[in-house]
Amino acid sequence: MSLTLQRSDLLRSTHYVGGRWCEALGGARYDVEDPALARVFANAPDGDARDAAAALEAAHAALPAWRAVPARDRSRLLLRWNALVLEHREDLGRLISREQGKPLAEAIGEIAYAASYVEWFAGEAARITGDVIAAPVAGRQMLAVKEPVGVIAAISPWNFPAAMIARKIAPALAAGCTVVAKPAEDTPLTALALVALAEEAGVPPGVLNLVTASRANAASVVDVWLADARVRKLTFTGSTPVGRHLARGCADTLKKLSLELGGNAPFIVFDDADLDAAVDGLMAAKFRNAGQTCVCPNRVYVHDAVHDAFVRKLVARVAALKVAPATDPQAQIGPLINAKAVEKVDRHVQDALSKGATLATGGKRLPELGPNFYQPTVLTDVSNDMDFACEETFGPVVPVFRFADEDAVVAEANGTPYGLASYFYTRDVRRIARLASALESGLVGINEGAVASEAAPFGGIKASGYGREGSRHGLDEYMHFKYLCQGGLG
C-alpha cells in the first residue's frame, strides 16, 4: 500500500510566517525520519530565535484586525478549513503514517478526530456570550463580556500530530486570537499541511504562523515566546518536566497557561465486571497508536476472583494483533516513534522480569520489521517496586496487578503524582458512584475505554497539568472576562 500523496503540494517544507512560506532565517534544515524504516524521507526548516521573533511580530500585527472580525465570519472560515481537512483526510493520514508511524486506518481516523475540533469550535465561535448582571443600585448597567486573550503560543506533541495542534489552533482562532505554533520536531509535516489548508480556507496573513525546529533548537524558539509579554497565553501538550519549565518561564509575564502533561492511568477491573467488555475497553484504550498516548492505561488492576479469566481473554486478543508498517493494510500496531522510545519500553519489561513478573505474551523487539517495532506485551505478577508502577511506559505493554480490596486499589490508583485519566469496570451502581468521586484524575472512563471527544473537557489534575481542551470550556481558555459598569442611566 503506497503512502504517496495524491496532492503533492500538501508536503510542505518551509515555515509559514506572516502569510508567506519561507525558509528559516538562518538557512538551516533538519531531517525527518520514517520511524518504520528509521530512514530520512523529508526535511524541514530548523528555526531559531530569529524565526520565533518574526512569527510573533506577524501575529501581533495581525491581532487587531482579526479580533475585530465578527464571530460568525470566524466560524464560517473554520468550517471551510474543516471541509478541506476532511476532503484531504487520506493524504493527511498518509503524512501521519510516514512521519509518526501509526497504521493508515488509524491515521485517517486521527484526521477525522482533528477535524471534529475544528468543526466544534466553529460552532462555539458563533455562541460566545457574556453576562448581564443585576445592578445593585438604580441608574447603572453592569455587563461581563468575553474578549480574546491575544497572541497564543501553541506547542504540540508528536503522538497526535494533527489532532493536538488542531485542538489548540481551532479554539484560538474561534476566540479571535492569533497564533504562533511549533509542532514536535519528529512530526512537523502534518502540521504544515494543516496550515496550508487553513491558508486555502482563507485565514488572513499573520493570523496563523508556524515555525519548525530540531530538538537542538526547540528551546531557542519557545524561549522567545516565553519571554515576550505580547504572548498572552501558552498551550502545551507533552511531558511534565517540560511543562514545569514552561510554567516557570511564563511566570514573569503572567501568561495564561493550558498544560496537558504526563499520565500514569490506572485501569481497574472488579469481580463483577463484564470481562469481555473490559477486555474490549482495555484494547481500545491501551493499544491505540502502539500505546503512545497520554491516556493509555499504564497500570491494570484486576480483582483476584477474575484475574486468571481476564488474563486469558486479554492474552488471546493481544497475541493476535498484527504488527506491521503502515504500508501493510492489515497493520494494527505500528512502530514506536524512535529508538529512545523502544529502549524505554524494553527497559520497563526487563525491569519487571528481573523483579519476578511473568511474561504472558510478547516482550521482544521485532528487528525483522525494523528497529522501532516492539511486540504487544502482557505481564502478570507485577508489583509496586517495578518501573511500571511509577513511570509512564508509552508503549504497547500491559502490566497486570492483582487486587482484592476496593479501598486498597483506589489508594494504589491514586498513589501517583499524575492525574490525567482513570478507568474502571463494574456493574455495581453504588461502586460507580464511589469511584467516580474517589479517583483523582481529570478524565474517568466508567465501563468505557474510549473517552476522548471534542464535546468533552479534556485535561488533568496534579502533575498532569491544568486547563481544559475541547467542550465549551475549551473556548474560555482563550478568552478573558471584561467587566463593564456604566452609571448615570437613571
UniProtKB/TrEMBL annotation:
The keyword Oxidoreductase applies. Residues 26-483 form the Aldehyde dehydrogenase domain. InterPro entries: Ald_DH/histidinol_DH (IPR016161), Ald_DH_C (IPR016163), Ald_DH_CS_CYS (IPR016160), Ald_DH_CS_GLU (IPR029510), Ald_DH_N (IPR016162), Aldehyde_DH_dom (IPR015590), Aldehyde_DH_Superfamily (IPR050740). The active site is at 260. One of its GO terms (molecular function) is succinate-semialdehyde dehydrogenase (NAD+) activity. Keywords: Oxidoreductase. It holds the Pfam family Aldedh. PROSITE patterns: ALDEHYDE_DEHYDR_CYS, ALDEHYDE_DEHYDR_GLU. The keyword DNA repair does not apply. One of its GO terms (biological process) is gamma-aminobutyric acid catabolic process. Belongs to the aldehyde dehydrogenase family. PANTHER family: SUCCINATE-SEMIALDEHYDE DEHYDROGENASE, MITOCHONDRIAL (PTHR43353:SF5). This is NAD-dependent succinate-semialdehyde dehydrogenase. It comes from Pseudoxanthomonas helianthi.
